[in-house]
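Sample intake sheet
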Amino acid sequence: MEIYDIAQEVFGCVVYPGDPSPERKVMLKIEDGAVCNLTAFQMCAHNGTHVDAPYHFFKDGKTIEQVALNKFVGYAYVASHEGQVTLDVAKDIYAKAKEASKNSNNPDCDCYNRILVKGNSEMTEEAAKYLADNGILLYGNESQTVGPENAPMAVHLIMLGAEVVLLEGIRLAEVPEGVYLLNSAPINLSGSDGAPARSILISL
């Protein structure tokens, strides 16, 4: 078994343009005579590796604590792609994930429901609709946003409108394509539109 840490380190993480960066404040230090070391911090819910809840783009959408944990935890398929995830690319990735699930000889393997894309990619509206219509639970990518950085809204509306969890800002450079067990449970920030996640993949 191998565990891949696919989350960014928080204080050095990539930040979506315009969002505030994480800030650390040292409250107590043993070397200064304090009884313990104590750190406080402040950050945006969408810094670094994080998940989006429907409330991010929908006034009455589910907030992060209302999203079922089985969406964040379960079998996942890692695919490599650089550039736009078009409709044809999405169809190809989904087909490979279905085939990988079938070949796993595990009746519980539903890796086609959680798809992670390795590489510098952005999703088109057509691809988003195709994956949403197929009922996937989670989609993850390495960019800080799933759609084009200069116009992310349309893809978010499609995916979050179908209650597909978006896992953004993951790091997959060291992860080969294939099937894994994903744990990307977010911090339980009640009422929030998203939350940081210490995402890991476990080889099978």
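Comment: Helices lie at 87-103, 125-133, 153-161. The first helix runs from residue 87 to 103.
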